[in-house]
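User: two proteins, same treatment. go.

Assistant:
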Amino acid sequence: MDEFMKAAIDEAQAGLAEGGIPIGSVIVHRGRIIGRGHNRRVQKGSAILHGEMDAIERAGRQPAQVYRESVLYTTLSPCPMCSGAILLYGIPKVVVGENRTFMGEEDLLRSRGVTLEVLQDPGCISMMHGFIAAKPQLWNEDIGET
C-alpha cells in the first residue's frame, strides 16, 4: 500500500479511537506530507471538520502554488464541501481509498480537471461498513441525511 494512503488510514483510525468518524486525509507536496487530519466533527463539536478540511486546516497557510502541486489522499470519496475546498485551492489530484460506502462529488471534480484515483481499498471499505453499522445516526448526521 502507498505510504500516503497508509497515513490517511492511520488518521481515520485515530479519529475512530477518539470516538469520531473514521475518515482520514493527508496533503502531499513534492513527496512530503504537509497536512494531515481526520474527521473531528464529534471531537470538536464542529460542523465542518471533515478529514479533508482538517488536513487543509492543519497544513496552515500555503502559497497557492503549493496546493497546485499537491495530491490529497482521503480514505473516502470527498463530499460536496470537501470537493469545493479541493477546487478552491486548485489541488490537481485526489487519491480516494474507497467510494462504495459513499460517492462524493467525483464527477464535479473530474469535470473541473481534477485527476481522481479510486483504490477501493478493502480496509477502507471494511472500516466504513463497520462504523456505519455501529453508528448509523452519527453517519447520517455527518453526510447531511436525516
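Protein 2:
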Amino acid sequence: MDPKLLEILVCPLCKGPLDYRKAEQELICQHDKLAFPIRDGIPVMLQHEARSLNGATVA
C-alpha cells in the first residue's frame, strides 16, 4: 500500500482517519467500527463492501 495514499485516505462516511492493517489487508475506521478491504492493492471504500467490527451487518 502506497504510504502517500494512506496519508490522504479518510473514511467515506465520517471523514475520519483510517488505520492500516497490513496483515488483514484492511483500512479500519475506529469511529464507525468498519473495516474496508484492500483488494489487489486497491482500497475498496464502499460502505456495502465494508466489514463491521462489532458483528452487525453493514447496510
